[in-house]
Amino acid sequence: MAKRAFLSVWDKTGIEEFAKELVGLGFELLSTGGTQRALEAAGIPVTNVSDITGFPECLDGRVKTLHPKIHAGILAMRSNEKHMEQLRELGVETIDVVAVNLYPFKQTIMKEGVTLAEAIENIDIGGPTMLRAASKNWQDVTVVVDSADYPRVIAEMKEGGVSQKTKFALATKVFETTAAYDSLIAAYLREQGGDEMFPEKLTLTFEKVQSMRYGENPHQAACFYKEALPVPGSLAMAEQLNGKELSYNNINDTNGALDTLREYDEITVVGAKHANPCGVASADTVCEAYKRAYEADPVSIFGGIVAANATIDADTAREMVKIFLEIVVAPDYTEEALEILRTKKNLRVLKLPTIKAKVENAFDMKKVLGGMLVQEYNTKLLNDDYKVVTKRQPTEKEIEDMIFTWKIVKHTKSNGIAIGKDKCSLGIGPGQVNRIWAANAAIERSGEKVKGAVLASDAFFPFSDCVEAAAKAGITAIIQPGGSIRDEESIKLADEKGIAMIFTGIRHFKH
Ligand SMILES: NC(=O)c1ncn([C@@H]2O[C@H](COP(=O)(O)O)[C@@H](O)[C@H]2O)c1NC=O
Fold this sequence. Notes:
Blueprint: E1 3-9, H1 15-24, E2 27-31, H2 33-41, E3 47-48, H3 49-53, H4 68-75, H5 81-90, E4 97-101, H6 105-110, H7 116-121, H8 126-136, E5 142-144, H9 150-158, H10 164-193, E6 206-212, E7 222-227, E8 239-242, H11 248-261, E9 268-273, E10 276-282, H12 286-296, E11 304-308, H13 314-320, E12 325-330, H14 335-341, E13 348-351, E14 363-368, E15 371-376, E16 387-388, H15 396-410, E17 417-421, E18 424-429, H16 435-446, E19 454-457, H17 465-473, E20 477-480, H18 487-497, E21 500-503
Parallel strand pairs: 1-2, 1-4, 2-3, 4-5, 11-12, 12-13, 19-20, 20-21
Antiparallel strand pairs: 6-7, 8-13, 9-10, 9-11, 14-15, 16-21, 17-18, 17-19
Helix pairs in contact: 4-8, 8-10, 12-13, 13-14, 16-17, 17-18
The structure holds ligand FAI.
GO molecular function: IMP cyclohydrolase activity; phosphoribosylaminoimidazolecarboxamide formyltransferase activity
Family: Belongs to the PurH family.
EC number: 2.1.2.3, 3.5.4.10
């Protein structure tokens, strides 16, 4: 019996060469309309699927290959005498190679103004059916869903036949591909339906971006995957202009720096370490903002991440190269700035034109052993009805500094306390197991400048000890969520010390 290969591809990349090689190896080719036309135009002989099925392609291509003569030919187990006998009785011939790639559903939904009907029409039915059938029968059928695998398949055929190992790998790839394809469809339809935020079955599609040398630690293997449709402004959309490959920690830490940066509309620079902000400052120029953020904590920024929301110019770049930084990320760079940054060959320079990300429809997820925590992104900053709870009202300047510092503490690991003044961070106390230690760390790190500064706390004060410490240090205003059963003690102490205090009514735990 002649060996037969079924080729039905949307993306015709490499199909001509692959088909020619198959013909050279003695295969008879079967195909659907568009693929057939492409091959015939290249002078390659092809049999149309309708000549096999005796049934025309119909319903605008919705039904082409969905026929027992095709699927029995793919699914029959060659080692099963009964199967083979049935094929003979039914007049069905086996199909030994299936090369199929699918309708471009992802590209379709990415198009501006795409309609639901257009998206639905781009859900491939016959393609996945053939691919899945061929993969189920992987021992007898070579299935190719990725044109990058054509050369490898041909090479092995020339060596005497495609190995079982390769066939199994190709079949596995098919199920990864069809599962990702379907989960993207499910996500899109869910978004169109719009009412159920958390579906019964959460299926996600991620695509491999890069393998990494290692993970959080050198003994952990790791890899970075991006969402099939990453949110604009996310790190997955960044272009790397210089430096070594991004590491696992680089990506996590830069993500944290960007989270903080997105809170600010004015020119701002965020220095970050282990995903916590360590120096944050706003200014009229990016250079000034960088210098202030650096000076806010010249110790921690060493080997850290710097994220800016304005174009990096030569002056800023000159400042940046004075110390060892892991990453600089910004919307753009002047030519000269880039030249200066490139003098540090290991410095990873990332260009991210959109810093503000639209995360309203995206999930924030955290993997735990055996499960996944899924929540909305923390897009809120303050409640509109935040209130002053002390006798003394804060000055306008204090309010400005409190909002500035509140944005920092929102993105500081809990328990977190941040102290700021004049649109610049002073001391940041992240990730403590109790609040007073975080307050003490932030106060100590602020040094002399703490006098007249403001303090922000990501969650309420369980006791009045933080107010006590703040007053002793010379802090004049405090912003915190409120909500403790001992709030009155904190308010009373603040009143005694002349501190103005705002309750935001909203908490910003971050773990
Ligand atoms: N309807 C079917 O029976 C069917 N069989 C194969 N396809 C797809 O049709 C495409 C190729 O079509 P053409 O050769 O006509 O360009 C491939 O992406 C293939 O996955 C089908 N299309 C959609 O379901």
